[in-house]
User: Fold this.
Amino acid sequence: GNSVTQMEGPVTLSEEAFLTINCTYTATGYPSLFWYVQYPGEGLQLLLKATKADDKGSNKGFEATYRKETTSFHLEKGSVQVSDSAVYFCALGPTIGSQGNLIFGKGTKLSVKP
Amino acid sequence: DAGITQSPRYKITETGRQVTLMCHQTWSHSYMFWYRQDLGHGLRLIYYSAAADITDKGEVPDGYVVSRSKTENFPLTLESATRSQTSVYFCASSEPAPLPYEQYFGPGTRLTVT
Assistant:
């Protein structure tokens, strides 16, 4: 069945450091891919998404590229801030245009120190 | 308030008691979901609903009951609470395909079963 694997945390970085959180998936067809972020004490919110191969999702300085050849959707940011401290979830969704449920990775906690 | 709300935000109950968690959304989204979030497991789908009076099981439905008599409400009931149901519960909603598939999450309910 479909599944998502993301790197274990926690990840601790200094402010302005480069961030990569790895995410790989197993799925048939052409799923859509998402990164959600959960700030302390809040629900999840969509950070970025990509719906087809080679799409790049971007938001708030974060980027992720849908790589079908490596079945990956790694999250990157060039210079993290303290305010980026949160838990990040990679998620796999249905092929665009069809209905289905999201499958979430286990989450990666990021702490950014000043 | 527009959006998706959950109540209560915090709940402590005793083993064996029935407890209902409420979820309300103002967007008239067709789909609604209940997840539980536990350390080491990420988010796991409990139940979902495609429309009023249509519900279906997710990954971990045992011990839970849902109903959806109105589009905007999707209550989750623990019929006889157990300690293993101590968790943070999130409700979410979304539009159906073919729109981009994004789920909108509520702020969560932290449930402790003693």
